[in-house]
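Let us work through a complete example step by step.
Step 1: write down the sequence.
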Amino acid sequence: MKKILNVCMCGLVAAAIVTGCSKKPANETTAAPETTQAAATESSAQETVPSVDLSKVDNGTITLGNYKGIEVKRDAVEVTDEEVQQAIQSDLAAHEKDVEVERAVQSGDVVNIDFVGKKDGTAFDGGTAQGYDLTIGSNQFIPGFEEGIIGAKKGDKLSLDLTFPQEYNNKDLAGQPVVFEVTVNTIKEKQTPELNDAFVQENTEFKTVDEYKENQKQTLLQNKNDQADQNVKSNIYDAVLANSTVEANQEAIDANVENVVARYTNQAAAYGMDFASFITAFTGMKEEDFRSTVKTQAEGIVKQRLVLNAIAEKEGITVNDDDRKDVAEKMGYESVDSMIQAAGQYEVDDYIISNKVLDFLKENAKITE
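Step 2: predict the structure and record it as C-alpha cells.
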C-alpha cells in the first residue's frame, strides 16, 4: 500500500489523502468466509463522490507576523538498551512461523478445519468451508465457535451448538440456534525464532547479531531524531501562527471538510457500506463526532495554508519538478503523474510547499537542546 500523502506535516493538523487504503473495518465478526465479489461488483459500478478543487477556493486573509529567529527547544534524544531489546523482540515476533504440533488445541494456535453450519438440520449459505485456517482467539467467528475447538486434537470431529448474536447482519441467522460440524485437520503453533547469526543472515543484510543490534539502535535513534525535528517545526509554526493575524474563510473550511467526507464516502462504497457505518467501523467514532473533528482539523489546515503560503511568497519558495519527483519516490509512486492522478496537483504541491517552508523556518530559528 502506498504511503498516505498528508497535506500538513510535523505534528500539525493533517488531512490525509487516502489512496488505496486496504484496512479492514474494526470489530468485524463473521460466521464463515463469504464471497465479496457481488459487493465489489456493485460498488465498482457506483459513481464516486467528486471532491472540491481547492485551488479555486479563497482560503482567507493573513497579516504575517515575525517568523524568523523563533526560539524553540529541541528534546534531547537517546536510545536505551531496553528500547533496542523491545525493537528486536518485535522484529522476531514479525518473523514467527506456524509449526505443526501433535497436541490439543490451545488459544493462539492456527487450526486448519473443515466445517458445515446447519440451521434446523439444513446447511445455510456462507456457513461451509474446507481447509480453512483459523487463529484461535482472533474472534473471526461467532462467540463459542473458537472456544469450542480448544482442547480438540488432530482428526477430531466436533459438533458445536451455538447461537448467532442478535445483532448479526444476516437477519435470517440473527439470534438463531445453529450447529457447526467441525473437523480438525491440523494444529499449528506460532514459534518465534531465536536471535542468532543464522536468523540475522537469513532475514537482514547483516552477518552478525552485533551488527544487527547496532542497526536497530541507529534506526531507533534516527526515528527519535526525526520526531524531535518534527516537534521543533510544529512549535515554530505555533509561534508564527500566534504572531500573525489569520482569518480563515468558512468556504475554504467547508471545502476541506467536504473533500474528507468524499474520500471516506468513496471508501465506504468500495466496502459496500454506507458512510455512517463505515466511519464507525473504521474510526470508532459516530458520524456526528467524526464530522466535528474533521471540521476542527479543516480550520487548522486552512490557517496553516495561509501562513505557510504567505511565507513562501515572501521568501520566493516554489515547487519544481525535482521536488515532485522526490516526493513521488519517497511515497512509493511509480511516477509523478501517478501520484498527481491519485492525490491531485494542488494537494501534491501544497504538501511540498508546506514542507519546504517548515524546513526554512527551522533553518532560521534559534534552537537549543
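Step 3: interpret the result. Residues 1-24, 26-45 have pLDDT under 50 and may be disordered.
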